[in-house]
Amino acid sequence: MKKNLIIYGILALYLLFNIFVIIPNRSEMNLYNELINPLMWIVMCVVAIFLGKDSGLRVRSGVNKTQSLLIVLIIYIILYFLSGLIFGFERTPYSKDILSVLLNLWSFGSIIILQEYVRLQLVKNENKKMYSLILTTLVFFVLNLNYSNFLDNFTDFKTIFIYVSSVLLPAIAESAILTYLVYTSGVKASIIYRLFVTIPPFLIPIVPSLDWFVTAVVGVVLPLAVYIYINYVNVVKNERLSRGERKRYSPVVYIPVFALIAVFAAFVMGLFKYQPVAVLSGSMSPTFNRGDAVIINKLTKQEKNELKKGDIIQFISGTRYVVHRIYKVTNDEYGNKAFITKGDHNNAPDSDQVSLDNVIGKVSFSVPLIGYPSVWLTGVIS
Fold this sequence. Notes:
Elements: H1 2-22, H2 29-52, H3 63-82, H4 84-87, E1 89-91, H5 98-125, H6 129-143, H7 157-185, H8 187-198, H9 200-203, E2 206-208, H10 212-236, H11 243-248, H12 255-268, E3 274-278, E4 293-298, H13 301-305, E5 312-317, E6 320-331, E7 337-342, E8 354-355, E9 359-367, H14 372-381
Antiparallel strand pairs: 1-2, 3-4, 4-9, 5-6, 5-9, 6-7, 7-8
Helix pairs in contact: 1-2, 2-5, 3-8, 3-10, 5-6, 5-7, 5-8, 6-7, 7-8, 7-10
């Protein structure tokens, strides 16, 4: 424990140096990232290894576990870039000339490798296993947060909610799985995990453009999936377990659960023809009320032309998505078919016409009350 206290003290000084010296002087960031920071981590890594060389504890390792991890991460990379076909792509902010790529690989790759060796020593030096794993997870979670404009993420409840969901939760989940990998599979496994997750944007000019919600889900689900699979590999290696006991830990057991989660997520995000939409106001009462959910049938251009008076549609009005009833079928100034809409609870029709291009779909049916979580979430982030 005394050895770890020395390492923790050095890491604390490093963190304070970054927050109070480096971040306020951003003009020197290139020099810091490419030279000073790697050198500092080399020194810290050497000290950590020296302090841990006499440790009697041995961290587990195994080639098969690393191979299993590679399978999971390759699947993740494939699915990650396929998601760009759904959410679109965006250019990465990193330069792609050879020198810049090599400098980025050195700056980030060297830090990843050195940090994981320090993590390894912290796990090895502590006799209380669970205490060590939790503390090491928290230490590296704090170390790897981006403290540039950190306080800007706490200006209002919406910003805090998005920051916690899309940054802090994935960061703590990643730190936890890295500590678990170091303990169960060796430092090579944690390095491979971080390289696969971190390096692609430096090598590839475009990456999927994911919003904060998808980023939050991926950031938590990936570490969970890796944990489940590696835990299964560890159990299979335990020959004292019967075949029936091993089956209980098989990742196959979780496939239906993950499949259902994936299908439900795709349904909620509107990847299918039918999409649920929460009712955020009482403008359509009593047909459906605030907190209900309506199922929208997304229409083709031909189906939009077949809409008639009395149909309830979802459409775009400015930056808002609205669900109202067609009050009158009319034509716009160019003679194209358009609609006048009205909420059942409103006294007057909506002021703006709705063109066919702004129509998304038609309400098929509603389900009472189940939209309240979305109503609450919308209230939080709006």
